[in-house]
Amino acid sequence: MIAFKPMTVTDNLLPVEFGKRLQSRARKSTALKLDNYLELRDFIGENEDKILSIGWMAFYKEAGDWMDSAGETVRKNLTIVRNYPDEKLKQWISNGLSFDHIERANELQNVKECHYDAAQILDAAFQLGGSDGKRMTVDEMETFALGEKDRTGGVGRLFSSLLHKLGEFPSKFKWDSEKTSRFTQWLDAGREFLT
Predict the structure, then answer these.
(1) Which pLDDT tens digit goes with each residue over 35-57?
(2) Contacts of 130 (CB under 8 A, 6+ apart)
(3) Do residues 108 and 114 make contact, with C-beta atoms less than 8 angstroms apart?
(4) What is the pTM of this model?
């Protein structure tokens, strides 16, 4: 039997230089993803009438084809970046936050027990940092926003998963833009009771 030495906080399994390369590529990848969505968001602003004439789902599908992803993924990621200023989004990403951080902060600001808006939560996630002195994890960010006693834990994750699946309905069922818009309004209103 081989005895394994337990790792301590100061031990690193990965060599530091290797870890830095991984981190650098991961952040570049997320920054490039953000660049695509910022440019796509600008395109929408300049071409909304044309998009409306072909339908939002057709637009998302075409953009997804070019971006090697599903149209629903494009729709979801555009929803995540919302209308945040470009520089703010770039600041969050360059400081190690992910699209998952932004998505969760967007959801948290709608929770009754949360007294912060999404931008404040995201700023705190990298300015205050997490338990390891780096940026907060999504779970740490949730604890910051709601406090430990108000975190919903497993039930909250269940509802988050349910809301995510419901958000996929418009593309899954190929709804037109009018029906998609009504459904999205209904879903956003329902978040109050499920988060």
Answers:
(1) 999 999 999 999 999 999 999 99
(2) 136, 137, 140
(3) yes
(4) 0.70
